[in-house]
Each structure stands twice: as C-alpha cells, then as structure tokens.
Amino acid sequence: xxxxxxxxxxxxxxxxxxxxxxxxxxxxxxxxxxxxxxxxxxxxxxxxxxxxxxxxxxxxxxxxxxxxxxxxxxxxxxxxxxxxxxxxxxxxxxxxxxxxxxxxxxxxxxxxxxxxxxxxxxxxxxxxxxxxxxxxxxxxxxxxxxxxxxxxxxxxxxxxxxxxxxxxxxxxxxxxxxxxxxxxxxxxxxxxxxxxxxxxxxxxxxxxxxxxxxxxxxxxxxxxxxxxxxxxxxxxxxxxxxxxxxxxxxxxxxxxxxxxxxxxxxxxxxxxxxxxxxxxxxxxxxxxxxxxxxxxxxxxxxxxxxxxxxxxxxxxxxxxxxxxxxxxxxxxxxxxxxxxxxxxxxxxxxxxxxxxxxxxxxxxxxxxxxxxxxxxxxxxxxxxxxxxxxxxxxxxxxxxxxxxxxxxxxxxxxxxxxxxxxxxxxxxxxxxxxxxxxxxxxxxxxxxxxxxxxxxxxx
Amino acid sequence: xxxxxxxxxxxxxxxxxxxxxxxxxxxxxxxxxxxxxxxxxxxxxxxxxxxxxxxxxxxxxxxxxxxxxxxxxxxxxxxxxxxxxxxxxxxxxxxxxxxxxxxxxxxxxxxxxxxxxxxxxxxxxxxxxxx
Lengths: 459, 131
Description:
Chain A has 459 residues and is α/β, with parallel strands linked by helices.
C-alpha cells in the first residue's frame, strides 16, 4: 500500500518544474558513504495470514506464567467491558483531537477522567494525562521549578526509595535544563526515607522533594512528617502515588498536618485498566492545586455553556500550551495518552470507589499471604520492618538470578531482582501479589521455591 | 487612537514607565497593548527583590487567546509586583496607566530612563504601525 498520494505524473510534473530529472537526484548532496544501500537481514515480506501465524507462535513461547513481578507495573483484573468500550470507533484514538470542540464526547470523557483523578488524589485540578509515570515525574520536577518562585536553586531531592526508572527518566529529561536531582538514602531497617537523612539539607535552597507512596520497595513512607518538613522550609512536595493504593491510603492532597497537602501529585496510571503488555503503552497522571494550574503541562478540558446556555466541553487554559506559547510552553512533551486514559476512566466507572477499595484490600491481603509463605522457606527472610501495600522485599542466602531461572522453568515469574540497582541490599527480590493471585497460586510459588532452594543447596 | 499620556515614557514593545517622586519607577503596558491583547484573564507579575535586565521578560499577560511576555524597559531591581492583579487582571484593560500597573522597580546604579521614547515618539510609532 502506497502512503504517498502523488501519482507518477504528479511527481514528474513537480520534478520538471524545479528542473531535476529524478527524485534520487534530490538526495545528491548526501555522501555515498552515508547512504544505506539495502536493508540487510530483513526477511521477505509476509502476507497477513503468514504474519498472524508467526506472531501467535511467538506469543505462545511466553507461555502463561504466574506473575509475581510488580516494580512499577501491576497485573490487575480488567473487566471485559473496559476494552470492549474503549475500542469502539468513537473512542479509538491515542490523541486528544486537534479540532477538539467538534469531539464533545471525547472531551466529556476527558473531563470525567480529570474529575476522577482530582478526587482520587485529593487535589483540585488534573490534566488530561501524560506519557507515562516516569515522564510525569520529570514534568512535575520542571513544574515545581516554575511554581516555587521563592527557590532559585533548581535542586530536587529524590530519595533512593523512588522507582529507579523514574529517577533516570527525570534526570535524562530535565538534567539538561539545569535541574539537579540529589539522592536521599533510605533507612536500612525500614526501607523508607528517614527525617535524619534530610538533616544535611537543612538551611539550603531546595526547590522540591519527590516522595513516592508506596515507595519502590512497596513500603509506606511517613508522608505527613516528610511533607511538614518540606513545607516548613518552602520546599515543594511532589507526590508519586499508585492510584489503586489511594483507595486505602491518605490522598496526596491531605498529606501533612498543614492546610496544604502535596503540591503536585503524579503517578503511573497503568493499574487502572491497562494490561501489562510487556511494558507499555501506559499513561501518566498529574494533578495539582488551582494556584499552580498555569504551570501544569498538558491538555485540560473545562466545562462551559454555549450561547444558548447548553452545557458543553472545551479545551481550556491553552495559553500554557505549545501551540500558543511555543518555546515558552509549560512542556513540549505533553503527549496525552488518550486511549489508555479512556480505558482508565471506564475502569474507574465500573469499579467505583468500593470496587477500587476491594481491589486494594485484596492485593494487600494477598501480598501478606505471599510474604508469610516465602519467608517460611529456609534461607528466605523479610528485608524491612514496617507497613507495606502490595509489594515487599525478601532476602535470600544466595544469588537471586539462578533461583528466578529455576522458578521461570516452572512457569513462575518470581519477582524483580534488586541486586543490580540496590547491591547494598544483598540477594534481594521485590515481590508483588495482587487480587489476581489465589492462595493456590501462592502455595505453588512457595512449593516451587522450596524445591529450587533445596536443589540449589544440594548443588 | 489609543490613550498615550504625555507624562510617561514608552518602549517599542508597548510598555510604559512612570518616574515616581522618589526616583523609583512604575511599569505597565500601554492602552494600545491592552486593546491588542483583548480581555486579560491572568497576569503574572515578578516578585519583589528580583533583578531585571533591560529587555528581559519579567511579566506575563494572558488573554483567552494568547499569553505574551512583558519586557523590562529598565535595568534594576523589582521592589514590588502589583498584588491586586492576581484577583483582578482586568484592571490592566480598564485602567492600564493606573490600577493596572504591573511592577515597581529601583533603577540599577548608572541605569537611566533617558533612552526610552517620549509620548510624542510613541504616538508616531503607533501611527506608522497603522493605528
């Protein structure tokens, strides 16, 4: 299928007009050494039938493993209606339409999404979603620099208990704009950020602190204490939250003992109806207080009335955006994940506050059962004390990688090996169980682990 | 023809400067500028204490259609941004030379306002721009 609309006659007429004999001649200035002659190693084209068969064969190689990996993406039950509705033609687009107001249905859906996210995070206003959780952290950091006008340092404190991928993406995205991301160590005993670790920043100009709840280890940070510490020093609080957990935990808008909670709330939206899909596409969310709305990136839909007084929806506060502000826009990466955001809105509508709370409660209970089971195996113990949500770290008396391979051969994805990113923890494994795991699934994991451990000890 | 008070000084980018009795200056955007922008919905003014260079973007005026930077007509230190504009941005439309002032500033040592345009010159600029 040709994607270029010009006929050979059109092309000839255009070439004749500029006095060039061939399209090839237009590329003359590119040296021969830089040209790609042929795409070596690309196999011959396949028909739809052939490619369909190849892909289903490849997909079956994955098997149907029992997944206990979390680390930022979580397997939850997705009601069948979510994607049946999301993939209807009226919704099936990855983007906010450019002729926005002609698509009232899409705008109303985004408006409902924003309302739900603002309510879930306890904030006053939400945007129409961002690219993913990691880029949302980067955007929140940039936004904090624009919003916290008392601070001039561009220094952002990021505890090491924040998802390492988020930290890398934030540094890659915002580092060249002068932002400095500075590590804060976590407590070896509890796996959370202790107030003592912040003491060395006392009296310094700090723009913002990123607080993840639950943190990368699944542990619950003392968000009230950290928020109060930051606000007492004019430091912005960027909350990174798991949306499912907000059915149980205090929303960012209520963090701290003061009148103001976190200043910006962001996170990965994947747990809300988006399948794991080998890592993406997912979507990021972001909400804030009204006083900072003009510094928030991304599209925002507002509700209004037309000349006849009828309710309608419109893109609003567009003077922040790149099509008006160009280089001075709040962001030039405000890809709104329209399709995933649509799925999340439908997921939240179907689940409701009660459904979401049941999901969160069941996930927590399953993880408790999992940790109890795993730590009953000889040579396995918990890494940290204190509360967790639906993820936790266990320590082994030997390297984790061979144990994970052994489990994988039994159809079990045992968790996320932390030894590369957190070598100081030793043989550490991050494990997760959601409501999708049954007691027999957990029993199967524990039994397989006992066998693997026994085999390893014998070897 | 828009209002161009004779006792003020002006810039090509449509800011005005009023020299106050104590030698400090008050700065805003002209009647012509506010007409071109249309109804303002938001004004961001600089914080007191901020040092500004000549021609540096120091404030933002936002209408329903566009957001525009306001450039500092002087070099110096901001003493105060107009706090009333947060709640009442429309003052820039209704009273651009009075309640709609954007910021007050102290000139830097050696800085002057002599290079700014007189009211007559600014009127001529508006005429040549076709207004």
